[in-house]
Design a protein that fits this description.
With 391 residues, the protein is α+β, with helices and mostly antiparallel strands. Helices cover 46% and strands 9% of the residues. The strands form two sheets. It has a five-stranded antiparallel beta sheet with strand order 4-3-2-1-5.
Length: 391
């Protein structure tokens, strides 16, 4: 069952036109758009994954095909989900506000058969909105939580005005009293952080913390009906155009492969062994580079000695350890040459803002803030590309 009733007191029932036989006239609006959307939507994650592998391979087709062969699809989907989980609340809440604003401001233009925005609003259950708010509160950074509060209160006020237009006291409490109380609480908690951000010149952070609580009381009611369809559909198209670009930009920076440091000790090859026979070689092999160029003297940076190959670990086969090093070169290191391996943690992102709210940095999500911190340990020198015991 959907969140809202088909009709509400004081709101005209939406009907569809019919032909002479009494059957509903076939309309090519929202239904066709939904079919195209459902058809193309699964291709967007696939396109993101392909673009990420293409970027990781430095636009080399052979390297990309190697990554496709060895990279786990489950690992790719996990990275995609973790990186873009914040996008689900953005889509649900933004389009939910715009659709409910259109329905309340211009009910005669709210036609689920013709408008994809109206169709999505009419068919979105209430529990989806609640789940989106809960997920956003966990996955959005602290500086975006005032915007989440604003969107949530807008949705609540617009829904109350639509479902209970004959209860002015209830509408007044939800549309005026509740936003004012939320703004007072928000400014009480965020006030010091807003002032600190302003003093430090972080105008964007100060605006993200200060503007949404005051703007909460702006859209708790209808807007002029003559501008509502143009405004809501225009903003919906803008969000639909900008959000995929932002999601792609975020995902292209997400690591897909574990970073590892492989300590390599080249063994004597058959070409240089006494007698020149393969039987005198232990772990003898060549090290192909760049998808197949053989170098008989081992890795390029190893001049007959030990080295540390630092990069993304692609796979470990029966014969080789395949690493994509920092120069985007594929290194096939023979397993007999591998002295040791160590998994290197991903470097922490450099914070843009130093502002915090009662010890909570504005760039931290609630989920990260609540999770236990990883104990600090001395970094392994191999993760810096240096050999143990060598300064």
């Amino acid at each position: 069952m959907g969140e809202d009733r088909a009709t509400a007191p004081g709101v005209p029932r939406i009907t569809t036109s019919s032909d002479r036989s009494g059957r509903p006239r076939r309309m090519a609006g929202a239904r066709q758009a939904q079919q195209w959307l459902l058809t193309l939507l699964p291709t967007f994650p696939v396109l993101l994954l392909v673009l990420r592998l293409w970027q990781l391979s430095q636009q080399d087709m052979s390297t990309m095909l190697l990554l496709v062969q060895y990279v786990s699809p489950l690992g790719l989907l996990s990275a995609l989900l973790i990186a873009l989980v914040w996008a689900f609340p953005v889509v649900v809440l933004a389009f939910g506000v715009l659709g409910r604003l259109l329905r309340l401001s211009a009910p005669d233009r709210f036609d689920p058969e013709r408008s994809l925005l109206a169709s999505g609003t009419a068919r979105t259950p209430g529990w989806v909105i609640t789940a989106a708010v809960a997920l956003g509160s966990l996955t959005w950074q602290l500086r975006f939580l005032p915007s989440l509060l604003m969107l949530g209160l807008w949705l609540l006020a617009l829904r109350t005005r639509y479902l209970h237009p004959d209860q002015p006291t209830r509408v007044l409490v939800v549309s005026v009293a509740l936003p004012l109380a939320a703004a007072v609480v928000a400014y009480t908690v965020l006030g010091p952080a807003i002032w600190t951000a302003y003093q430090d010149g972080e105008v964007a952070t100060a605006a993200l913390l200060a503007v949404p609580p005051a703007a909460t009381i702006v859209l708790t009611g209808p807007i002029p009906g003559w501008i509502a369809p143009t405004l809501t559909h225009g903003l919906a198209f803008t969000v639909a155009a900008v959000l995929p670009v932002v999601m792609g930009a975020v995902f292209l920076r997400v690591p897909l492969l574990p970073t590892a440091a492989v300590e390599v000790v080249p063994k004597e090859s058959a070409a240089t062994a006494p007698g020149g026979t393969a039987a005198a070689t232990t772990g003898a092999s060549t090290v192909p580079k760049n998808g197949g160029t053989a170098t008989p003297d081992g890795p390029a940076s190893a001049v007959g000695g030990r080295e540390v190959v630092l990069g993304a670990l692609i796979a470990v086969t029966d014969t080789s350890t395949i690493v994509l090093d920092r120069t985007a070169t594929v290194r096939f290191v023979p397993n007999g040459w591998v002295e040791s391996q160590v998994l290197c943690p991903q470097p922490a992102a450099v914070p843009y803002s130093l502002v915090s709210v009662r010890g909570w940095p504005v760039e931290e999500t609630a989920l990260n803030w609540m999770m236990p911190r990883r104990p600090l340990a001395d970094p392994d020198v191999r993760c810096e590309g240096r050999l143990p015991g060598v300064r």
